[in-house]
Amino acid sequence: MLTLAWPVLGEQVLGFGVGLFDTWLSGQISPGATAAVGLAAYVAWLATMLFGVVSVGATAIVARHWGAGEPALANAVANRVLGLGLIAGLLYYAALYPLAPWLARGLGMEGESFAIAVRYLRVDGAGQIVTAMALAGFASLRGAGDMTTPLMLGAGMNLLNAAASWAFVYGLEPLGLPAYGANGIVYGTVVARTLGGLALLATLASGATRLRLIGSELLPDRATTARVLKIGLPAAFDGAIRWGGHFAFLALIARLPTTATSAAVAGSGGGDVTFAAHIVAVRLEAITYLPSVAWGAAAATIVGQSLGARRVRRAKHVGHVAAGQCALLGAAISAVFVLAAPPLVSFMHLDPAVRAEAVPALRMLGLFQIPLTGSIVYVTALRGAGETRVPLILTLAGMYALRLPLAWVGGVWLGWGLPGAYLGMGGDVFFRATAAGIWFRIGGWWRKEV
């Protein structure tokens, strides 16, 4: 478990660092810039979940073939999902470009925030074309048990992202590069993603990894596409449903009034304050996703390969081990959020009103980081077995029966602002962690055919 998890954890840490850096950069500009960058981050998250049509299926199918001792079939699937990833990226960009203004207006953005958000979304969408293909390649490599190559390529991509974003935001006079302000953040991101995708293709073509790029096999065939869609469509639909709920949750937060405390603080950024505070809090909460995604990816790989080798008992055991190890890390993160909220928030944003709003919100998030780890690990392990329908049902129930109603009650009806709205987040993750854990124990997912 640890051997497979630590490279993914390293990759996640670097990705988190870039997202944190982008939010910090926007925090040095204005609450409006933070709000715009925050919306773009949520839309990029939607892209990743939609690309799960390809990546979730890739991991499960490649892992089954690899565990069954069929590396040639695993390699053929990996090549074909690269082609499917490219198609998914193009379709996403074609849909995002006209929808960008609607998404910004849906969160009540106007003026500076609206202009930055629309431009950011459209430019970032172009970079997602390459990202879709890269995610498919990384997922295939993980299915074959290669966690190190995605780590190394992801590290280079993320470090380049941070450096390029800084350069585009502030400019490099000796090189004649002008300062682009908030727009520079996304310019750096697209440059890094494009070069990272090219690096992935070059690495696969070199033959230095367990899987190898074969040009003649990049064109998807009907059989592989059907297998990938059988697993990936429910996962992508799960992601789209979850994101729709998150967008409704964001819209609710964007319309929450600032608290009396933060409204009285000098330097208030007006209507963007509450939303910017939420972005700061959840960007810090992304720390919890680092071990959760890493241990979940390791569990998915071991589950898939164990089922391919017909070692069902091992497949059952690994999910509980991963969830238990992650819960310990979740407890430590919870303590940090509760005890160190003021300095963490102060580092992330200059505006005192945003700080006053974000501190109690971050402390509230600290109360449910342990179940958050369980909800991620168990669901990812189930997907490693090709079980994607049950996670979809849990998402529908948790998001629409718990998160949104409880968020309205706490944030609007009771008037508790962000901490009140976060009651919905807590109810959602507690439910999904418990239900996914029970299903992993008794659900019969080990009989799933992929």
From TrEMBL:
Coiled coil: none annotated. Pfam families: MatE. Keywords: Antiport, Cell membrane, Ion transport, Membrane, Transmembrane, Transmembrane helix, Transport. It comes from the Bacteria. The keyword Amino-acid biosynthesis does not apply. It is found in: Cell membrane. The keyword Zinc does not apply. InterPro entries: MATE_fam (IPR002528), MATE_MdtK (IPR050222), MdtK-like (IPR048279). The chain crosses the membrane at residues 39-61, 81-100, 120-139, 151-172, 184-205, 318-341, 361-381, 393-416, 422-442. Its main location: membrane. It is a multi-pass membrane protein. This is Multidrug-efflux transporter. It comes from Alienimonas chondri.
